[in-house]
Each structure stands twice: as structure tokens, then as C-alpha cells.
Amino acid sequence: MLLPNHGANPSILLKHLGKEQTDSVIDFSENTNPFGPPAFIKDLNSDQLVSSIKAYPDPNVTDLTERLAFTNKVPKETILVGNGAAELIYLIAQLFENKHVAIVEPAFSEYREACEAFGCDITSIVLPPPWKLDVEKVTSTFSKIEALFICSPNNPTGVQYTEKEIIFLLEEAEKAGVYIILDEAFYDFSEEGVGLARLQRNFSRFIILRSLTKMFAIAGIRLGYLIADKNIIKKVSLYQPTWSVNGIAQHIGLKLLDERSFVTNTVENIHIERRRMTQLLQELDYIVSDSSVNFYLLGEETRIDLMPLFMFLVDKGIIARHTYNFSGLNGAYLRFAVKDRLSNNHLLAALSEWRKR
């Protein structure tokens, strides 16, 4: 059965399954902020939006770049804003066109797709459950690669690697002349809430990828950014089309950086619910990944293919994220977002019913 490669599109999934879309579907495959965007977005002045639509956007994204640099305490020359993290992944892949790269997996499928699009020779470093980072296994590839893609907190497992582990990889990569691309798209959902931007100045081949889409629930606007050595930023920016980041995205992005209490409240509520869900699901004898963010993997001891559970949930109006296109998972797990308590309870009821079958 051919399923979509990404979550967050229930209508597309249901069409693939030959089922009708209903208003009662709860989409647990979407891992953006379940509480929606900040309140100011609903109150945006239409005149401001029209002005952003009519005028050509700043091709250099000057104001937002400077604010991101200030927020992250890095020079503005080390920031590149993009049309979502996905665009930036493709720009990075182009930087390593026809080169040998490695990907720590399971991981976001766009790394592989982007690298394949630019003819990269790809080494897959698959971590087995419980998906802890094997630094020796990773560094053993450094003699034959030029770049490494790694995601922490990881998508789809939610597992976060330690700062000590990442620093070890960076030190070994620097010696070997290997670039490390660290995807921190979900770092602001972590209870620590601290990314590794401060380390970038110490490592010339360290590229950090961030997204504003997830925390602020603005998937339709598309905003992401890179933090890297200024020489890397210069090279990557050459591949980026002019006016890649539209005027509305730039306008909203500036306001998002003021939403500190929104982020704090989101993280507190997400972690309360994730811990509750983890405990209750484990009591039902499900395997739950040791996630630090707003989603988790769920598996069963006795099943290597969760398509029956996936379809059972679809019939209950619940959309999970399949894992057939994640290397090392191959459909043996489902990924669920952490949502509001009512939605999470609906999922618990369905999974409890499944256990009784």
C-alpha cells in the first residue's frame, strides 16, 4: 500500500486509503504545536498583510536575520533564513553535491531525499531501539564521508542526544574535516529548551538547522534558519533564490521572537501530557520511546508491522504517522503527537480498546 511520505495531511492519507474525510478526525501525525499559533496572528491587521503582499520582500531578510542573531547571541553573518527548514535542507544537500554523506537514522526523510536529488553517496547509520547515540559507530564513518546529518531531538523518536555526545562528534569531525549538520527543529520543545548555537563559533564545520514552524504552528508560512560559519553561509546563500522568504513570513517572524511566554507555556503543558501519556501507555504494555519533545514512537512487543493498528485507529477517526519510510523502523512503530488532554484521552481509549481485542 502506497502511503504519503509525510504526516499532517489527513485528507491525502484518507484518499490513499479509499476512505472519506470527516470533520471528526484527530490528526496525531502532525507534530506542530497542538495549541495553535500565538494569539497575535489571529489579530493581524489586514492593512499590514496587504502591505507585505504588495511590496517585494527584503531579499536579504535583514531585520529578521538581525533579530535571530541577537536572540541566539551569534553574529548576523552566521545566520541564513529560509523558506522553511525543508528549503534549507536542499540548499545544504546542494553544497555537498556528488559527495559522500552519512545520515544518523531513523531520521526525517527529507535528508535522504535532498541528498539523493544532488547525487550524494549516502551511508546510513541506523540506531537500534531505544535509539541512543552510538558515537563510536558514527565516528567510524568519518574517514570516508564529508558531511553528517544528525537530528536532536530526533524526529521521529523524540530522543535527545546529550551535549557531551554532540561535542565529541564535533571534535572528531573537526579533526577529520567532516561537516556536521545538526537539525534542531524541535529543540525549543525540549524541557532543557537550550540548543547548541553557542558551540558553533568553536567549530568551523558545524551547521545548525532550526525551524520556527513547529513551535509556533505556522506550517503554511514556512520559516527556518541556519547557524553556521560565515563562509558556509556565503556559499549556501548562493544557491537560494532571491525573495525566497516572503514578506508576510518576515513580518510574522519578527513578532514570533517576542513570544517567550507562549513558548514557556507550551513546553510546560506538552511535558505534563507527554509524561502522563507515557506512563499510561506503558501500563497498557506498549513500547514508548524516551522522548523529550512533543511526539513519541509507540510499538508493541509482539508485532513487527503496525498497519493493523494504524487502520484500526483510522476507523476510530485517529490519524497516526506511519514509519515505513524511516530507516530502521520500517512500519514497526507509529508516531503520535502530544496533543491536548481531551484528544490524548481519545487516543488512550482507542489504544485500550485495541488491547482488549
UniProtKB/TrEMBL annotation:
Q: What is this protein called?
A: threonine-phosphate decarboxylase
Biological process terms in GO annotation: cobalamin biosynthetic process
Specify the enzyme's EC class, one word.
lyase
Q: Boundaries of each Aminotransferase class I/classII large domain copy?
A: 24-342
Q: Which UniProt keywords apply?
A: Cobalamin biosynthesis, Lyase, Pyridoxal phosphate
User: Is Iron found in the keyword set?
Assistant: no
Q: Where does this protein have coiled-coil stretches?
A: none
